[in-house]
Amino acid sequence: MRAAAGRLRRVSAGPDAAYFVVDDLDWADDAGTGEIPAEMLEEARRRGGGGRKILATGEGGFHSTYSEMPPGYTMPAHRHDTDEIVVVLDGSCTFSAGSGADARVLGARDSVVLPAGRVHGFACGPDGLKLLTIAREPYATELVDD
């Protein structure tokens, strides 16, 4: 961080950094934990697979996951009990955070911020979808009837 007159100001690094190397992490046992509704898991399996890896679980006050979904997979309307940001890393999706009239195509490097309770869903594009989800607290997923 730069201080006045072009001098460099030294800042304490704080607590240890927490690194999450996706290739070194195991896929979450979502079927065994029940954290993801069974209907969502079955649809992904039927389309060729997918899954998520748990990254931060409170480190620095963050909770995050890395997810992969197959081409054509539709994430049904659902909501979470906390704010979240979703970042598309690879692939694409048509994302809706409302009635469907607001649907937007998101590709690599695009993101959306969703307030707690906001109903949303998406359909993966022809190359599938890889995304990063970040929240400030642990969250539950609740399916919502259309």
What does this structure look like?
The chain has 146 residues and is mainly beta. The chain contains 2 helices and 8 strands. Strands 1, 2, 3, 4, 5, 6, 7 and 8 form an 8-stranded antiparallel β-sheet that branches. The relative contact order is 0.22. The model is unreliable at 1-6 (pLDDT under 50).
* Cα end-to-end separation: 49 Å
Largest sheet: 8 strands, antiparallel
CATH topology: Jelly Rolls
Taken in chain order, the helices and strands follow as HHEEEEEEEE
Structural class: mainly beta
Query: What is the approximate shape?
Result: globular
Which residues sit in consecutive blocks of at least 5 with pLDDT less than 50? 1-6
CATH superfamily: Jelly Rolls
Write the layout of secondary structure elements.
Blueprint: H1 30-33, H2 38-46, E1 51-57, E2 63-69, E3 74-80, E4 84-96, E5 104-107, E6 111-114, E7 120-135, E8 141-143
Antiparallel strand pairs: 1-2, 2-7, 3-7, 3-8, 4-5, 4-6, 4-7
